[in-house]
Amino acid sequence: MKYNTKQGESLLAFLIKNKDRHTSVQEIIGFLASEGTPMGTATIYRQLDKLVEEGLVRRYILDGKSGACYQYIGDADGCHEHYHLKCVCCGKLIHIDCDRLSDINRHIFEHHGFTVDSSQTVFYGKCSQCGKEGV
């Protein structure tokens, strides 16, 4: 997708810079405002929808409580889906890419005829920091 506006270019630059993590619309709004290129929420969602349709961005819906998160995948070589860990204490979201989880996917498909959508699979618990703090 070609962006002809400073706002669109800033949005895409932010997603690319943060491609190793999920970002929320609120984070994007804050970044664009700090860059002096504010963009309305509806416009951001429209732009993100276009990027998702084009396969440059992946949308993650992690639970019914929080909004979707987005991650730039446009230049990833063979970017693959991964599971998520969400801390119930601090809300931290962690990507987890593990061969053992791929084995679980394979088992579920081969023995139960079910394909898991790992982009929507979240394990809830405590992150290592919150576990140390005894929260």
Topology:
Layout: H1 6-17, E1 23-24, H2 25-34, H3 41-53, E2 57-60, E3 69-72, E4 83-87, E5 93-96, H4 99-112, E6 122-125, H5 128-133
Parallel strand pairs: 4-6
Antiparallel strand pairs: 1-3, 2-3, 4-5
Verbal overview:
This protein has 135 residues and is α+β, with helices and mostly antiparallel strands. It has two domains: 1-76, Arc Repressor Mutant, subunit A, CATH 1.10.10.10; 80-135, Dna Ligase, domain 1 (2-Layer Sandwich), CATH 3.30.1490.190. Helices cover 41% and strands 17% of the residues. It has helices at 6-17, 25-34, 41-53, 99-112, 128-133, and strands spanning 23-24, 57-60, 69-72, 83-87, 93-96, 122-125. β4 (83-87) and β5 (93-96) form a beta hairpin. It starts with 5 loop residues before the first helix and ends with a helix.
Descriptive tags:
alpha+beta; globular; 5 helices; three-stranded antiparallel beta sheet; Arc Repressor Mutant, subunit A; 2 domains; three-stranded mixed beta sheet; Dna Ligase, domain 1; 135 residues
Structural class: alpha+beta
What proportion of the residues is helical, as a percent range? 40-55%
Shape: globular
* Rg computed from alpha carbons, rounded to a whole number of angstroms: 17 Å
Name the helix and strand elements from N-terminus to C-terminus, one letter apiece. Answer: HEHHEEEEHEH
Termini, distance in Å?
44 Å
- Low-confidence segments, given as residue ranges, are none
Q: What characterizes the major β-sheet?
A: 3 strands, antiparallel
Strand content: 15-25%
**Which strand order do you get reading across the main beta sheet?**
1-3-2
In total, the number of domains comes to 2
The residue-averaged pLDDT reads 82
